[in-house]
Amino acid sequence: MSRTGPSQEEAFARIRLLRSPNIGPITYRHLLARFGDAASAIAALPALVGRAGRTYSPAAERRIHDEIAAVRKAGARYLFHDSPGYPPLLLEVEGAPPILTCRGDLAALERPCIAVVGARNASAAAMRLAREFCFALAGEGWSVISGLARGVDGAAHQGALAGAQAHATVGVIASGIDLAYPPEHAALQEEIATRGLLLAEQPPSTEPLARHFPARNRIIAALALGTLVVEAAPRSGSLITARLAGEMGREVMAVPGSPLDPRSRGCNQLIRDGAVLVQDAGEVIELLSAFSGSPRAVLREGAVPDPFDCPGDHAEAATGEPADIAGFLSVAPVTVDELIRQCGASASAVQLALLELELAGQLVRHAGGRVSIG
């Protein structure tokens, strides 16, 4: 599909829809597909939730006006899922952010991308390796994606920025676009926004809460052809990013370390579990490149089916009734496909029932298209 971006009125309504209670990326996608545009979806929300026996108020328009003003004040802009420049690799992922805010040049996402992550309390050796890897990768035309955290993330960005290349790094933050976290990376974040690209999913002025970091990690993994872990302890955020990359079908690479250093155990475990052992930037480029030497699997405009485009939903929206799925849901997650099979209703009727439950705050969505009672 051709992506031209929404009109000003539709953009405002989309932001309001996404900021309304109990609406995440998947619910937003289904609402937009079912009702055709965000304004119609917002108008339908009270009735949808009313059928679950609850009242519902969408986000106040004043709040959205204030948010837009804050985005402009920060020198940022919105990037919608159907806007030019929205990365196709990210759009491919279930639960892709329908709206991002950004500062910088989207040309950074036109280069082949590699995610580089690692420990916050990284060793001096890991910091040096991250800088050297990313300096070399940037010099070969790659964009380095990372999360601006202390340790390996910061070193990765610094290495990519150390050369003369523009658009060499992309920072994905867990806060609003107008906040710097950690504070000591404020200057680094500003340099990334000036010479590369800065992305945020959260609204402006949002503090980086613990639950925001896994959401940020999924974006880092999704933007890249592969994820490289330089140093990581077991059960760290870096391993979450690596696991997400693997689930998305992307390459996972790790730098081995001493078994005597707890900060290396995560990387060593990744290698045991099937991640590719790499020791220099050349091995990373070789792994992520086709036989011709060009980056492989780079998705171009139109190569990815748009998950927001769901033909057939609009016609049923006015008359369709939700399926009776209450008896098939419990606290144990089940896939939506299995739910459809069990209840015998149409996919559209099941999705409408799930929408109503989620908007009423009674449904939890899990990875892998699974749902449960909240």
TrEMBL record:
Pfam families attached to this UniProt entry: DNA_processg_A, DprA_N, WHD_DprA
InterPro entries: DprA, DprA_WH, DrpA_SLOG, WH-like_DNA-bd_sf
Domain Smf/DprA SLOG: 78-288
Domain of life: Bacteria
Domain DprA winged helix: 315-369
Protein family: Belongs to the DprA/Smf family.
NCBIfam families, per database record: dprA
Protein name: DNA-processing protein DprA
Protein source organism: Novosphingobium soli
